[in-house]
Amino acid sequence: MTSYMANERSAATGFAPVAGRLEGVRKHYGRNGAPDVLHGVSAVFPHGTMTAVMGLSGSGKSTLLHLASGLDQPNAGRIWLGGVEITKMSRRRLATLRRRKVGFVFQDLNLVPTLTVAENIALPLRLDGRPVSSSHVARAAHQVGIADFLGRLPGQLSGGQQQRVAIARALITRPDIVFADEPTAALDPYTAETVLGLLRRAVDETGQAVVVVTHDPDVAAYADSAIILDHGHVAEVRAVPEAADLRQILRKLGADSRRGVSR
User: Fold this and answer.
1) Full-model pTM
2) pLDDT at position 35, please?
3) What pLDDT score was predicted for residue 30?
4) In this structure, is the dihedral angle defined by the CA atoms of residues 233, 237, 243 and 244, taken in order, positive or negative?
5) CATH number for the domain harbouring residue 237
6) What is the pLDDT of residue 217?
7) Number of domains in the chain
8) pLDDT of residue 7
9) pLDDT at position 262, please?
């Protein structure tokens, strides 16, 4: 049984509450009749799991992340964050829900350069109108190993340290689900392993769901399952993914693409 099927069963029984879910999602850009980027994609992201989303360039990985997180809307299908369907939710209500339910870690980090580390970490709380406790911020910084840098600006930190700030900011609100888009792409192997360990700990210790979009099989091997996309379709789902197996799948998809084979 694939992990996707197992996750569906868990969601149905209530054994593993679902942090995010897509059902038959289709997406195209431009006018009606434009080709779909995603073709009826379904996925389930239970609490306490890390899911990797993989595929060749143009397979729809980032589009899936943007839809699942509510940053974009589908042309068809349904999407839930927690138990709340967001498919036709107003932008205002959706923005509020995202602030409370979702954390983001992006490759380009999106740290505010004029704010200190402490202020960047606290930003989601302030945007949501919640009180900000210095001890809460310090605890979040300590958890990711940057407690000594709270007064510094992002430009005074290394790339790995900045990524830790982004992770602390994503986790400060205790979101149900964290979406990470190529979070290790610009990092050296040691720092990348540290960052993945921090995301893994959010899953194992606090029961959050983490969805990582990546092109790297070694990154995906940290996950509990991997969804492999091909031209907007779910080509395969692997439980407990192994890096070597994922490389083989991607090589086959690349070879099929060069031969003009499509789903």
Assistant:
1) 0.87
2) 85
3) 82
4) negative
5) 3.40.50.300
6) 95
7) 1
8) 41
9) 57
Q: What is the pLDDT of residue 31?
A: 77
Q: Are the beta carbons of 79 and 67 closer than 8 angstroms?
A: yes
| pLDDT tens figures, 66-98 | 999 999 999 999 999 988 999 989 999 999 999
In a domain, 8, yes or no: no
The pLDDT value recorded for residue 232 is 95
Residue 27 lies in a domain: no
What domain range includes position 111? 48-70+93-259
Q: Is residue 79 part of a domain?
A: no
**8 A C-beta contact, residue 219 and residue 51:** no
Amino acid, res. 142: H
Low-confidence ranges of the chain (pLDDT < 50): 1-16
Find the farthest-apart pair of alpha carbons in the chain and give their distance in angstroms, rounded: 57
Q: Is residue 128 part of a domain?
A: yes
What's the sign of the alpha-carbon dihedral 118, 120, 123, 125?
Answer: negative
Pairing of strands 18-28, 36-46: antiparallel
Q: Mention every residue, 6+ apart, whose C-beta is less than 8 A from residue 252.
A: none
* Residue 102 β-bridge partners: 177
Using H for helix, E for strand and C for coil, what is the string for the chain? Answer: CCHHHHHHHHHHHCCCCEEEEEEEEEEECCCCCCCEEEEEEEEEEECCCEEEEEECCCCCHHHHHHHHCCCCCCCEEEEEECCEECCCCCHHHHHHHHHHHEEEEECCCCCCCCCCHHHHHHHHHHHCCCCCCHHHHHHHHHHCCCHHHCCCCHHHCCHHHHHHHHHHHHHCCCCCEEEEECCCCCCCHHHHHHHHHHHHHHHHHHCCEEEEECCCHHHHCCCCEEEEEECCEEEEEEECCCHHHHHHHHHHHHHHHHHCCCC
